[in-house]
Amino acid sequence: MTPSKSLEKLELINTIQCLGVAYHFEREIEEALSYMCTHYEEYWIGDLHAIALCFRLLRQHGYYVSCGKYHSINKQMKKLIHENMIYLIYQKYL
């Protein structure tokens, strides 16, 4: 499953739950989340929205997902935020 398809699937699961009709799709949701639980690390390096959505949905459905597995992603995000802040400060003083 490609990263964009995975994100689309997670967003669909989230929308179905928000609409309150998730009980009609319990088997499909469980299959998708089971797959995501075993493969989530390979996809979303640098996509904070996808990481957060996947983490929340997996935890919400009872999967154990360690926060520590996101440590390398956290380092990359901190670097990206730092670079963006330097750019914004630089733009302000031009």
UniProtKB/TrEMBL annotation:
Q: Which residues form the Terpene synthase N-terminal domain?
A: 3-79
Q: Name one GO molecular function term.
A: terpene synthase activity
**Looking at the Swiss-Prot or TrEMBL record, what is one Pfam family this protein matches?**
Terpene_synth
InterPro entries given for it?
Terpene_synth_N, Terpene_synth_N_sf, Terpene_synthase-like, Terpenoid_cyclase/PrenylTrfase
Can you cite a GO biological process for this protein?
terpenoid biosynthetic process
Provide the protein name. Terpene synthase N-terminal domain-containing protein
